[in-house]
Amino acid sequence: MFFATCFSVLSACSTAINPEDEKNPVEKDTVVFNSRITAGKLETSFIKEASGLDASITHPGYFWTHNDSGDEPEIFLISESAIFQMKIILDNTQNRDWEDIAVSRDVRTGKNFIFIGEIGDNLAKYSEYKIHIFEEPSQISSGDILNEYYQTITYVYPDGPRDAETLMVEPVSGDIYIVSKRETEVGVYRLKYPYDYEKTTTAEKLGVIPFNSIVAGDIANDGNSLLLKDYTMVYYWDIRKNDNIYETLKRSPYKTPYITEPQGEAVCWDITNMAFYTLSESGTFNTTPVLYKYEKRL
User: Fold this and answer.
1) Which is it for strands 201-202 and 151-156: parallel, antiparallel or unpaired?
2) Among 101, 124, 159, 263, which lies 20 to 30 A Cα-Cα from 57?
3) What's the number of domains the chain is made of?
4) In this structure, what DSSP letter does residue 14 have?
């Protein structure tokens, strides 16, 4: 199944060039990013299924992550060398299938918020999906934090249940973008800012892009670049002035020098937007997850 998925991904990527981009084909292994370096090993017994990753804005040099479905409803702060710092537990909810996390500054208040995407659905059987949102803590605590003060977006897709593992927040508009996973051409969906916490929202489908098995993504905090990840590659786009996210994703990406991990399902920019990080689940062979860094060439 894994090899079939990889073949499908590579086939989809080979058709990702739009007519206007034929003079600038997908390439760039060594043009934009340096080869990976090991930032640190995640030596914990309780973060084995890291499915999401994003840089803290309030605490530069730190990252938020979380486990996949079935874990407790909690997220973890780790350092840039993968050392565990603190845990936040969401009260009165569950981790049905948390698949991605994002951190973004609110466009009206200027406060930094964490977004947790309960967006996974392997069997496409759920009637609705959730995104939990709360303010990033101002201090790094030495103990666990029980958080009762969060709000939840409940949403559905206009074209039926979808499995998704990619949640991104556009920093200029505040809009939330979700990219589905399992279709031959995955869907791009939007939840517009300001969010509705009172009733179930129908996500807007913007269209499809010729990729599949998309498992993670992130928009840089300066709004100028974007990453998507499948199991074998990380793709990079510059966001052109006046282009929206979907228009950006319809263009051909750069291929980065990403090296496949045991089960890599997390990617994010660092706070400087000059490097991206990846983190893998422990995978079939229960390997120790490693936080990897890919720096931009200057």
Assistant:
1) parallel
2) 263
3) 1
4) H
Residues in the chain: 298
Distance, CA of 170 to CA of 154 (rounded, Å): 19
User: Of 190, 177, 194, which Cα lies nearest the Cα of 106?
Assistant: 194
What pLDDT is stored for residue 298 in this prediction? Answer: 79
Write the burial class of residue 34 (CB in 10 Å: 0-12 exposed, 13-18 middle, 19+ buried): middle
First-to-last C-alpha distance (Å) of the chain:
39
CA distance 173 to 196: 15
For the stretch 160-172, pLDDT in tens is 999 999 999 999 9
* Two tokens, residue 147: 């958080």
**DSSP per-residue string spanning 256-269:** P-----SSEEEEEE
pTM of the complete model: 0.90
- Please, is 15 exposed, middle or buried when counting C-beta atoms within 10 Å of its C-beta (0-12, 13-18, 19+)? exposed
Given this model, what pLDDT does residue 14 score? 33
Tens-digit pLDDT profile for residues 42-98: 999 999 899 999 999 999 999 999 999 889 999 999 999 999 999 999 999 999 999
Convert the pLDDT of each residue in 266-283 to its tens digit: 999 999 999 999 999 887
3-state secondary structure of 278: strand
Closest CA to 84 of 34, 37, 140, 28: 140
- Give the separation between CA 239 and CA 66, rounded to whole angstroms: 28
Domain carrying residue 272: 2-295
